[in-house]
Model the fold of this input.
Amino acid sequence: MADETVTVSDSGITVTVVEDNITVVTVGTQGPPGAPPVPPRAFTAGAASIAAQKLVALISDVLVVADPTNSAHMGHVVGMTRTSVGIGETVTADLEGAVTWDGAALTPGPYFVGLAGALSTTPPIGAVFIQSAGYALTTTLFVLDIDSTIIVV
Done:
């Protein structure tokens, strides 16, 4: 049987018959727009300096470097710092979304909350909890997506 295309009037449906197989193609409508990104937020750094591009936890209303070996940080990892700051200074943290990290050498794929607030491609040894932090799309583009699912070790 030769390929045959049939268009049904006024329905927007096109049917193509190819070797006795039928494919139905319809034109869909645009869905609603997604939620807007969560904007970065300013916090106060806690009792230690925080370097740029570190994952951070919100503990007692101040940011500290996230530590998966510290059970007090479980469920409190909130984002990633943009700049380095000293004790008690204001620091801006990205809470989710695309983060461009010039000069980084990320390996595309998933990342976890690592030791000393670092991104880690594997769950860290000695961790009391494992939490996904997001994923790298390129060597310099990271999608921060801190997962609320936490695995207790």
